Amino acid sequence: MKILFVTSEVYPLIKTGGLADVSYSLPKALKKLHQDIRLVLPAYASVLERLKTIETIATVEVTAYSKPVHILRSKLEGMPIYLIEATDYFQRPGHPYIHPQGHDWPDNAQRFATFCRAVIKLGQDPLNLNWQPDIVHCNDWQTGLIPALLSQQAQRPATLFTIHNLAYQGLFPYHQFYELQLPNELWSMHGLEFYGQMSFIKGGLYFADHMTTVSPSYAREIKTNEFAYGLEGLLKTRSPQLTGILNGIDTQVWNPKTDSYINKNYDEKRLHKKTNKQQLQQKMQLPVEPNTLLFAYIGRLVAQKGVDLILNSLEQLMAYPIQFVILGSGEAELEQQLTQAQQSYPQQMAIHLAYDEALSHQIEASADVFLMPSRYEPCGLNQLYSLRYGTIPIVRRTGGLMDTVVEATTRNIIQHKATGFLFDEANVMDFTHACLQAIDYYYHKPKIWRQLIRTAMQEDFSWQISAKEYLQLYQSIKK
Ligand code: ADP
Ligand code: GLC
């Protein structure tokens, strides 16, 4: 099967969140299943810097963009990767979607429309590349125009659209639709129009042959108004074409036995988390106390992730002998509140407001508990990394979190199935209660705590099963 995997970020070239991890690990797993899979992403400045050999294979004209667009080719760990080079749009420093001042890049519609149009040319092969995909696998709103534009062509590859996060929809005013010279027929509620605006994600949701999202529970949730932000009607109607497939993780990148970022490698039999914890406490200028329970949070600092619940529980929790390590970057207000909290509890709390790959591995290897109190979570990867590193997750019962963490109920503990703690409502009381439960188990039921770690570390969240599900889906939609 020839698969063109279209994404706006991929680890380790450019990453803002889990999409980059999946865009790296899923294609890698499909390649292992002997599929001819190729990646395509924008030629961001940082990506060009990181790839070694890059050749220009074609130059194309793209509607509504005045300069030529170059299609480049390179390899990422043996995987062919195409880059769309529209210099005005992608040769700029920093974040792929956000201006240094914190707002979206004002030309995001133009940037990703140009990307989509060039990808279609690549997929259709007027370029003599001698390679035409059977499947174009699109991801999130940045790629949404691809299924919409392809739907207008008689001979086309099959399209799959994966929803990683329905909250980000790529909404733009009508005048941009006009300026982009998109086909008039697409301006319809049965198309890109969404309450008077242009919606990139609707291009995927309305026109793709099939859709997936990244966990079975989120696939159910997005058919309700609480999670779909107005798109529930469309998703309900297209329910037969919507499948939830749980994300996997890259078990080579995330392996405590071989992880080169961490001080002392370990496995479930020889657990060296305390040695790693000491090292981390030193590095983060916390009192070096290997027996003190260490809570961790790693992630984007946005409302989705429920960081406010952590902040508002501190007063009650800090009365216990515990420490917090927090690694994240994002909304200025949350960064400020975290800084204040750190100043209030300098002996118990360390924060690092940045994006730091190495530190994220070190924290996973050192902490006892991982906090993920998300208001919603399509899948979530950090709880999966945590399970593999024996860092017991506390998560809210939502989306992929509830599909992957098994609650420490008496019954699950007796059956050796429990791997973490869950709570229901996104409020401070429920969250604090789950944290207090973890504190109690850690200090007073060490045998059970050890068992939780062992069970968590033995779980298999590799791509083995999910990659096969994607393959079956590709086969079922292939033209
Ligand atoms: P989301 O995609 O919603 O951000 P996920 O849990 O799916 O959430 O994936 C987040 C990914 O980004 C993980 O690989 C996580 O380790 C990484 N990450 C997020 N923030 C940071 C940070 N500040 N430093 C290092 N890694 C981070
Ligand atoms: C999104 C979601 C996250 C998911 C990731 C990868 O960013 O917020 O839950 O794990 O995509 O699919």
Secondary structure layout:
Elements lengths: L1 E5 L11 H15 L3 E7 L2 H6 L4 E6 L8 E8 L2 E7 L1 H4 L17 H17 L10 E5 L5 H6 L7 E6 L7 E2 L1 H6 L13 E2 L2 E3 H8 L2 E4 L2 H6 L3 H4 L3 H6 L4 E3 L28 H11 L9 E9 L5 H11 L4 E9 L1 H13 L4 E4 L4 H10 L2 E4 L9 H7 L3 E5 L2 H6 L5 H5 L6 E3 L4 H17 L1 H13 L5 H14 L2
Helix pairs in contact: 11-14, 12-13, 12-18
Bound molecules: adenosine-5'-diphosphate (ADP) and alpha-D-glucopyranose.
What this model shows, in words?
The chain folds into two domains: 2-248 and 463-477, 3-Layer(aba) Sandwich (Rossmann fold), CATH 3.40.50; 273-458, Rossmann fold (3-Layer(aba) Sandwich). The chain is built from 20 helices and 18 strands. The protein has helices at residues 18-32, 45-50, 87-90, 108-124, 145-150, 174-179, 200-207, 216-221, 225-228, 232-237, 273-283, 307-317, 332-344, 357-366, 382-388, 399-404, 410-414, 428-444, 446-458, 464-477, and strands spanning 2-6, 36-42, 55-60, 69-76, 79-85, 135-139, 158-163, 171-172, 193-194, 197-199, 210-213, 242-244, 293-301, 322-330, 349-352, 369-372, 392-396, 421-423. Helix 11 packs across helix 14 and helix 12 (307-317) packs parallel to helix 13. It binds adenosine-5'-diphosphate and alpha-D-glucopyranose. Residues 17-19, 22, 164-165, 214, 247, 377-381, 400 line the site of alpha-D-glucopyranose.
